[in-house]
Amino acid sequence: MDAPPPPLRKIIHIDMDAFYASVEQRDDPALRGQPIAVGGGGPRGVVATASYEARAFGVKSAMPGARARRLCPGLIFVPPRFDAYRAVSGQIRAIFARFTDLIQPLSLDEAYLDVTVNKPGIASATQVAAEIRALIRAETGLTASAGVSYNKLIAKLASDQNKPDGMCIVRPSEGPAFIAAMPVRRIHGVGPVTAARMHALGIETGADLRARDLPFLQAHFGSAAGYYYRAARGQDDRPVREREQRKSVSVEDTFFDDLTDRERLVAEIDRIATSLWGRIDKAQAWGRTVTLKIKFADFRIITRSRSFATPVRSPDQLAQAARELLLAQLPLRMGARLLGLGVHNLEVTEIGDQGDQLALGL
């Protein structure tokens, strides 16, 4: 006899709209309506985030600053103010805490909330999400988008549907069709490499993924097959966790041409370190161990690490450690096709305070 299905939940995913850039435009009226990028605009700089005006030109997060300027000649670069972003994130987290204690932050600007049982006793998760968005606007002057559904997978996908300043509700009866229409590259857990493998197998959408049986997926995707099989059917039983412990934060880049030149290698590791610091600060995850990864032209991989007594807390310290690890390997025995950098042994800092379709009441 089959086990009874798990109880239906009410999950909200809140995602702030162009968070860093929106804070800058809020605080400096001269930047409002302008294409701006938060980050470094120099040859080694990286875009942390871009305003929607800049995104219209194709400017994206993690894009090299030089390329962003080529795409958008009028782009205004603004240095990041992480203290300001953390302060606003704390305000937003305090708003969440008025409704539920089941909050799983993913970064400074997004979080899952389980409002199946919520503090005000509101039956409709849609109403909870609407009230949260209204409070964020009133108390911070910023906009947030929300996805409301019965699990984390669909709630996260839904929050991106009507950006910016939008909301999308996906009820249990609508979940499978919602996933079926979704490009597989947008499904959480399907990265660029996996998406390319799926495309090569003729899997372009959630419907294509659902059409493949579990043995087929296991043959091609190994241990991840079960997750993809359930995701294609709109199933996700992961709980909203109050603290999601990360094991590491990392960034890596594969190059079109294998790198051998010392100056180019150092420039690339500096750029990767800048990008990694943005992720570290956004996730509020500080690590004591810095690890360098090099993949050579023959696909052999080496890693080298350095550990500190206390967590790395500044971009300069991270960049210096990365350069020292790299320089110790020079000259390379052959060209590098990939460089990567990560931090491990993390200490995560938390911010702020801590049926049927009708019955679910989305």
For CATH, the homologous superfamily of the largest domain is named as: Reverse transcriptase/Diguanylate cyclase domain
CATH class of the largest domain: Alpha Beta
- CATH architecture label of the largest domain: 2-Layer Sandwich
Q: Which structural class best describes the helix and strand composition? A: alpha+beta
Low-confidence stretches are 349-361
β content, as a range?
15-25%
Chain-averaged pLDDT:
88
CATH T-level fold name of the largest domain: Alpha-Beta Plaits
| Number of helical segments with 4 or more residues | 14
What is the number of independent domains?
A: 3
Pfam families: IMS (PF00817), IMS_C (PF11799), IMS_HHH (PF11798)
EC number: 2.7.7.7
Active site: 110
Subunit structure: Monomer.
Characterise the protein shown here.
This protein has 362 residues and is of the alpha+beta class. The protein has 3 domains: 11-16 and 99-236, Alpha-Beta Plaits, CATH 3.30.70.270; 19-83, MutS, DNA mismatch repair protein, domain I (3-Layer(aba) Sandwich); 248-348, Dna Ligase, domain 1 (2-Layer Sandwich), CATH 3.30.1490. It is built from 14 helices and 12 strands. The protein has helices at residues 19-27, 52-55, 65-71, 82-97, 125-140, 152-159, 175-180, 192-200, 206-210, 214-221, 225-231, 262-283, 315-327, 357-360, and strands spanning 11-16, 36-39, 47-50, 76-78, 103-107, 110-114, 144-149, 167-169, 248-259, 285-296, 301-307, 336-348. The strands form 3 sheets. A 5-stranded mixed sheet has the order 5-6-1-7-8. α6 links the parallel β7 and β8. The radius of gyration is 22 Å and the shape is globular. Mean pLDDT is 88; it is low at 349-361. Its cofactor is Mg(2+). It catalyses: DNA(n) + a 2'-deoxyribonucleoside 5'-triphosphate = DNA(n+1) + diphosphate. Keywords: Cytoplasm, DNA damage, DNA repair, DNA replication, DNA-binding, DNA-directed DNA polymerase, Magnesium, Metal-binding, Mutator protein, Nucleotidyltransferase, Transferase. It comes from Sphingobium indicum BiD32. The active site is at residue 110.
